[in-house]
Amino acid sequence: MKRVDVVVIGGGAAGLSFGCSLADTKLNVLILERQSLKDIRSPQYDGRDFAITHHSKKVMQELGLWERIDSSEIAPLEAAKVVDGASDYTLAFDTHGRAVNELGYLISNHTIRQAIYDQVVEANNVEVQAECEVTGLSTDDQGALVTLASGEQIEAEMVVSADNRFSSTRRMMGISAEMFDFGRTAIVFRANHQRPHQQTAWECFRYGRTLALLPLNGDRASVVITVPTSQADRYLNMEPALFNATIAEGLGGQFGEMELVGQRYAYPLVAVHANRLHSTRFVLLGDAAVGMHPVTAHGYNLGLRGQASLAKRMKQAIANGEPFYAEPVLQHYDHRQQLASRPIFHGTNAIVRLFTNETLPAKLLRKAALRFGNHFPPVQWGIIHKLTEVGGMSGLSLPKLDTLPSFSKIPRYSVR
Ligand SMILES: Cc1cc2nc3c(=O)[nH]c(=O)nc-3n(C[C@H](O)[C@H](O)[C@H](O)COP(=O)(O)OP(=O)(O)OC[C@H]3O[C@@H](n4cnc5c(N)ncnc54)[C@H](O)[C@@H]3O)c2cc1C
């Protein structure tokens, strides 16, 4: 039977990044991924262009990932604007008077994954095993046992699961999660447009649907249209000329004519937060720990933060001669990550709930929220700080977990 120090389940952006973080240790790391090696080696564009925060850029630089990405693949995000309903009134964010020139950067998911894979395969102590599905997992004080669909079994000192928001291993370990099904689907694609975006992101909370434009380099953007899932097929199959016109109109006509580039991709929107992020010799990472609604662009950013925090604490333990899988090590990661994730998770869900509510009181509140944001600079700066993580999260005062609001109106399931 194969025996390693750490098994990572899931070779997505979070799992592979964690492999990179452990590359400078003596730990023997095995990443298990059900996709084919070809798909991991050369990931294809999947419609997702990520807004990357300043903190994530720093982590990516430390891991040697940033340098691997061609600068033409990185688009600076200099400003963001939010509009509501049919009104032209705009809540604006920019870096004017701040220490940085950009709010963040846009990079496609497949470009990031390519950089992470190219980095991780250079590590002598990290192995990526493709085309293997984990079907069984158990841990106790002595170690962990992972079973694959092929029947192969692997022993490890510790297991880290980064196997997506619907994590089967989270269930196997009996860890419950809060799940919010928004009943909506995000349709994502790239588009060329007639008038320049000036590196400004737009979030248009129209009635019935939400449109977001994320500026790439040149007169090209990544566009996200969020609609009730019952209407998703209509948008996915809409004839291109009509689709282009619908998008141009939804964005208020300010970019002139729009032209769909390539394919449309659909992502049903379900947000998940595990109720604890660790168990005996077991840790949840990435979307398996916290799967965010994409409107505040925090999923991968949180995953990257989490893996860095876990790797750092494990390395400290090793330096102190303690076991890297000891309960205080895992507990420390769990606590720190939840402190960062819970306010963002619940804040994001509250924004989504408000800006998809079309009752009269909600419409009035939506308008008031935009004006409040514009007229109170500390609020605006607080939001910028939260969204971009300029200077990391350390300067922020995070609310205590037990003071967070409950969002009872969003369909909510407890999953085991
Ligand atoms: C439309 C959209 C826009 C987004 N925009 C942003 C953004 O701007 N900024 C941002 O930070 N985030 C964004 N996100 C979130 C981001 O996509 C995720 O947070 C991130 O991709 C999660 O990575 P992960 O590695 O945790 O999970 P995944 O990418 O889901 O990877 C999990 C991996 O585990 C493997 N796996 C699953 N089960 C098993 C098993 N049993 N055995 C073996 N392997 C298994 C899967 O094959 C997969 O490769 C967006 C998401 C969406 C949908």
Summarize the topology.
Layout: E1 2-9, H1 13-21, E2 29-32, H2 37-41, E3 49-52, H3 54-62, E4 75-77, E5 79-84, E6 90-94, E7 104-108, H4 109-120, E8 126-129, E9 134-140, E10 143-148, E11 153-161, H5 168-172, E12 177-193, E13 200-205, E14 210-215, E15 220-228, H6 229-237, H7 240-250, E16 258-274, E17 278-279, E18 282-284, E19 290-291, H8 299-319, H9 327-355, H10 360-375, H11 377-388, E20 412-415
Parallel strand pairs: 1-2, 1-11, 2-8, 5-13, 11-18
Antiparallel strand pairs: 3-7, 4-7, 5-6, 9-10, 10-11, 12-15, 12-16, 12-20, 13-14, 14-15, 16-19, 17-18
The site of flavin-adenine dinucleotide has 34 residues, from helix 1, strand 3, strand 12 and helix 8.
Would you kindly provide a written description of the structure presented here, covering whatever features stand out?
This protein has 416 residues and is α+β, with helices and mostly antiparallel strands. It has a domain at 2-69 and 105-179 and 272-356: FAD/NAD(P)-binding domain. The chain has 11 helices and 20 strands. Strands 5, 6, 12, 13, 14, 15, 16, 19 and 20 form a 9-stranded mixed β-sheet that branches. Strands 1, 2, 8, 9, 10, 11, 17 and 18 form an 8-stranded mixed β-sheet that branches. Strands 3-7-4 form a 3-stranded antiparallel β-sheet. Helix 1 runs parallel beside helix 4 (109-120), helix 1 runs parallel beside helix 8 and helix 3 (54-62) crosses helix 8. The protein binds flavin-adenine dinucleotide. Flavin-adenine dinucleotide is lined by residues 9-15, 32-35, 48, 50-51, 109, 133-134, 162-164, 168, 186, 188, 224, 267, 286-287, 294, 297-301, 303.
